[in-house]
Design brief:
Elements lengths: L2 H9 L2 H4 L18 E9 L8 E9 L2 E7 L15 E13 L1 E6 L18 H17 L2 E6 L4 H12 L7 E4 L31 H15 L4 E4 L16 H13 L4 E5 L2 H10 L3 E4 L5 H10 L2 E3 L8 H10 L1 H8 L19 H8 L4 H7 L2 H6 L17 E4 L15 E4 L2 E5 L2 E2 L6
Parallel strand pairs: 1-4, 5-6, 6-7, 8-9, 9-10, 10-11
Antiparallel strand pairs: 1-2, 2-3, 4-12, 12-13, 13-14, 14-15
Helix pairs in contact: 3-4, 5-6, 6-7, 7-8, 8-10
The protein binds zinc ion.
Zinc ion binds next to loops.
């Protein structure tokens, strides 16, 4: 199955599930008919990249956008409700746009926001609860879709599946599970005496056969996307240099693509980024050492750069980013950019600061909004369902009090969040995220 059809297959059963007595958040009535929501938007950016329009009305049926109408309309915007309830939400004082997407997050960590236990005392059960809590923070910050770029697989797959089954309201999660890395590389969590039969070491590989196998095992375990560690990393002091050979990277990419999975590579050093791009990855994460030739090749091949400026605000990583200024050069060259904060390295409640960092580095606010919506959706291959607010798309919607096209930092305080037709935050107030 392709990614969009898989997503649709996961989401379709939800239409039949819902429940009496749900007020604003309802997506269906007791007898299973989808409920209607009418959103009155003072300003609407339905398709990022196009100009926003004043005084628009969104009509939502169940999980999907049914129509976008000119003017401010009330319940009469629903032509034929056939007895289903119609809820009107007044966002006439707001700027309304598609839900945000972060294509580089880690829900199992949260920077300086610590879990209530020390890391070495955390069991998989603790990690599941911690990830659930962080997912809620992420949704309330305005993110309706995330690509989880490596955490403990079982907690994350469980969280993803429970959200998709409609039991928790959270961001749609495309999860990498374990990252594919070389023994001793970034994200190798095993001790020195590694047992190759240990499932937690299934992500370590050397050679073409080994690396094909590692991807197949992650896919079998439930990965939606593949994360590859082309270089070492700062977090575990494994350095910035290349750790896989070209044939190993190519084996990872080709196997993932055969299985219908995209590959995002963590990569710092110049040669490593070049090798990963030549191997055909779908996105380069960080990419701080990328040279112009590689950036031009990324543009030509449609490979996304995921800037993760939020985790490069201090220390050695900041020095490294500022030395080569790859993001600034990528903007000039026209490399496609997808929004990724790498939060987990920083607290999830702060990840919308990435917009300010992107704009400070020279990106226009309009392009930053595209990076977090339509571009992210294209990278994740869910642009058939999400990323814009058009008829037939999922009703993933946020609203802020002023136009982020004038001041992108208003996105640090999102006032309204709807995910798949369900309200998660209204007038700045979180709504219930454990669903009946
Ligand atoms: Zn990361």
């Amino acid at each position: 199955m392709t990614m969009p059809s898989m997503l649709r297959a996961l989401l379709m059963p939800l239409l039949a599930v819902l429940l009496p007595g749900m007020a604003v958040a309802a997506t269906a009535t007791q007898d299973g008919n989808p409920a209607y929501v009418v959103i009155q938007a003072g300003e609407l950016l339905a398709v990022p990249g196009e100009a926003p329009k004043r005084n628009q009305t969104l009509v939502i049926r169940g999980q999907e956008v049914l129509a976008v109408r000119d003017g401010i309309l009330g319940a009469e915007a629903v032509a034929d409700a056939a007895g289903a309830p119609v809820t009107v939400i007044d966002l006439r004082g707001h700027f309304v746009m598609p839900g945000l997407m972060d294509v580089h997050t880690h829900l199992m960590w949260s920077g300086a926001d610590h879990p209530p236990k020390k890391a070495d005392k955390m069991t998989e059960a603790d990690l599941t609860l911690w990830a659930l809590r962080n997912a809620r923070t992420k949704l309330l910050a305005g993110f309706t879709t995330v690509r989880e770029q490596a955490s403990a697989p079982h907690p994350l797959f469980a969280l993803r599946d429970w959200i998709n089954a409609g039991r928790f309201l959270g961001p749609r999660i495309l999860a990498a599970g374990n990252p594919i890395t070389a023994p001793g590389g970034h994200g190798d969590m095993t001790k020195e005496d590694i047992n190759p039969l240990d499932i937690h070491a299934s992500n370590l590989c050397s050679g073409v056969e080994g690396c094909r196998n590692a991807v197949r095992i992650q896919h079998k375990m439930g990965s939606d996307v593949i994360k590859m560690m082309a270089t070492g990393g700062f977090a575990d002091n494994t350095g910035i240099d290349q750790r896989f050979f070209f044939d190993e990277m190519q084996a990872i990419v080709d196997t993932a693509h055969q299985l219908g999975l995209i590959v995002g590579t963590h990569a710092y050093a110049t040669d490593a980024v070049a090798t990963a791009v030549r191997a055909g990855v779908d996105s380069v994460e960080h990419g701080f050492g990328a040279d112009d030739a590689t950036l031009r090749l990324m543009k030509q091949k449609g490979i996304y750069l995921v800037p993760t400026l939020s985790v490069a605000q201090q220390g050695a990583i900041r020095e490294y980013r500022e030395k080569d200024r790859a993001f600034e050069r990528a903007l000039k060259i026209g490399v496609p950019i997808a929004f990724g904060s790498d939060d987990g390295g920083i607290p999830h409640r702060l990840s919308t600061r990435e917009f300010g960092y992107m704009v400070e580095a020279g990106m226009s606010p309009a392009a930053a909004l595209q990076a977090a919506t339509i571009n992210a959706a294209r990278l994740l291959r869910i642009d058939g369902e999400a990323g814009t607010l058009e008829p037939g798309k999922l009703a993933d919607i946020i609203a802020v009090r002023r136009s982020p096209l004038e001041d992108v930092r208003v996105l640090e305080d999102v006032d309204f969040v709807m995910k798949s037709g369900r309200v998660a935050k209204q007038a700045g107030q979180p709504q219930a995220t454990i669903l009946d």
